[in-house]
Amino acid sequence: MSGHETSGGVDADGAVRADRPGPPGAVASPTAPVTGGRPGPGGVGAAVEVCDVVVVGGGIVGLSTAYAITRAAPGTRVVVLEKESGPARHQTGRNSGVIHSGVYYRPGSLKARFAVTGAAETVAFCAEHGIRHEVTGKLIVATDRAELPRLHALVQRGRENGIPVRELVPAQIAEYEPAVRGIAAIHVGTTGICDYAAVTRRLAALASDAGAVVRYGCEVVSIARRADGVTVSASGAEVRAKVLVNCAGLHCDRVARLAGDRPGMRIVPFRGEYYELAPERRGLVRGLVYPVPDPAFPFLGVHLTRGVDGGVHVGPNAVPALAREGYDWRTVRARDLAETAAFPGTWRIARRHWRYEVDEIRRSLSREVFARAVRRLLPEVRAEDLIPAPAGVRAQAVLRDGTLADDFLLAESGACVHVLNAPSPAATASLPIGREVARRALERLKA
């Protein structure tokens, strides 16, 4: 695989908070199709499991893909391998829970197309399956005159993407959010909130009910190409499949290399740190409030999100993580650091954006500095109002030239379909993304 495709993009999600925990090899499905019983690299005595499609990664995109395959081609044998003890343990569950409208994304891009479609589908899916959600709308607020051209550009972009956008003056901002201050804003009516971990668990159950096998505690350790497909060896399992789908999120580039491909990118992990407003201060925020983003970065800035549980998340920032699953400064993995440091794109992006990252690190190390950033939108907030909340790590693809991939990336090679960049809004877009990945996998299956 010599390059990328930016058509047919998808989400590479590993997973987050889970349910249905189980021991290594635990199965959430009907009886798995197993042939033979010879030991394999997956472990002593591991049976060889034969299927049509093996999906690596049990986050929202991996399980959406499995679900889409079972719907599009009933009877297709699907096995999902997830290294954690349950679904949605990383990117999927460690985010703000926002259903994104698609207002930010370049018209015609995969992010724009799939977010707009996915937002409506996510709301419908949640309603059908009794999952907590709400269409709240959101404000994007300019606090400085220098931000006004970018705010007006978002109005135009939103309208080109078919999204209802209303421009607001300060008095109208106060009608939505009395405690928020700004010189202008836009209201985006189709934004909402939901519980993405619950969505993922439901996708896993639906895929399993349709015959897919979902195995937890199965970390992929090797992939061998064969004339008729691949053999995937994992802790506690060995799977022989005609097609491999890589939805490994934070580890998607590694899985691509295990499959013998050269993806031409590297996942550089950025940790997003969150606070919650103290319970007695939650009344300061009614819904969702965002700053005007800097288009030079794929991050939306520190924002305010009232979640489905009534709590108000504040964040995230974006600081370099010292491990792919580095949810705090204490978590350091030498292998992860060495891989990041050895990639030329890392140094190019560092030279290009070092001032931005210095500011982000300062916010990470000082709650007062973080609160100062929040006060641009919410003047009444104080450092003592912010309670630390669980962080997330964004699987951001960086190209060799130091460019941050700004769209979903999907690449194909032989019997493999790789999802190589699917950060936000991939959770919102997971249903259309899953269908697109499923389509490509089924095409490979027929080839």
Description:
Helices cover 29% and strands 27% of the residues. It has 447 residues and is an alpha+beta fold. Helix 2 packs across helix 10 and helix 8 crosses helix 9 (367-375). The model is unreliable at 1-44 (pLDDT under 50). It has helices spanning 60-72, 110-129, 148-160, 170-176, 196-209, 252-258, 334-342, 344-365, 367-375, 430-446, and strands at residues 26-27, 34-35, 48-56, 78-82, 98-99, 133-135, 138-142, 165-168, 184-188, 192-194, 213-216, 220-226, 229-234, 237-246, 265-277, 288-291, 303-306, 312-315, 319-320, 386-399, 409-413, 416-421. Strand 17 and strand 18 (312-315) form a beta hairpin. The longest helix has 22 residues, at 344-365.
Please tag this protein with its features.
single chain, 447 residues, alpha+beta, FAD/NAD(P)-binding domain, D-Amino Acid Oxidase, Chain A, domain 2, 2 domains, nine-stranded mixed β-sheet
Percent helix, as a range, is 25-40%
CATH topology-level name of the largest domain: FAD/NAD(P)-binding domain
Sheet/helix structural class? alpha+beta
Discrete helix count: 10
Q: Tell me the total number of β-strands.
A: 22
Low-confidence stretches: 1-44
Q: Name the CATH class of the largest domain.
A: Alpha Beta
Kindly report the name of the CATH homologous superfamily of the largest domain.
FAD/NAD(P)-binding domain
Number of domains: 2
Largest sheet: 10 strands, mixed
Specify the overall morphology: globular
The CATH architecture assignment of the largest domain turns out to be 3-Layer(bba) Sandwich
Mean pLDDT: 90
Cα distance, first to last residue? 18 Å
Residue fraction in strands: 25-35%
